[in-house]
Amino acid sequence: MVAKNKRHSRRIIRSLQRSRLGYFFQKLSDSTETSEYVSVTSDKTSLLIHLVPAKCG
């Protein structure tokens, strides 16, 4: 799932922060200040999170 806009991105981020992986996600998002959107790929057992920079290219 890729966030459609900033508002959608914030909603996804809040959900991730409330999940059991919230601490790790918070550390990841704090370390990358330039990221503006989030992309989440989920399988039944794994979760892959990409923080996408605001200015790609």
Structure notes:
- 40% of the residues lie in helices and 26% in strands.
- The chain is α+β, with helices and mostly antiparallel strands and 57 residues long.
- It has one domain (6-53).
- Strands 1-2 form a two-stranded antiparallel ribbon.
- A hairpin with a 4-residue loop joins β1 (35-42) and β2 (47-53).
- α1 packs across α2.
- The relative contact order is 0.21.
- The mean pLDDT is 65.
Topology:
Blueprint: H1 6-18, H2 22-31, E1 35-42, E2 47-53
Antiparallel strand pairs: 1-2
Helix pairs in contact: 1-2
Salient structural properties:
two-stranded antiparallel ribbon, alpha+beta, 2 strands, 57 residues
Short description:
The chain has helices at residues 6-18, 22-31, and strands at 35-42, 47-53. By secondary structure, it is an alpha+beta fold.
**Helix and strand sequence:** HHEE
Low-confidence stretches: none
- Enumerate how many helices there are, as a single number: 2
Quaternary assembly: single chain
Helix content: 40-55%
Q: Which word captures the global form?
A: globular
Strand order of the largest sheet: 1-2
Rg computed from alpha carbons, rounded to a whole number of angstroms: 11 Å
Largest sheet geometry: 2 strands, antiparallel
Q: Structural class of the secondary structure composition? A: alpha+beta
Distance between the termini: 21 Å
Strand element count: 2
* Mean pLDDT score: 65
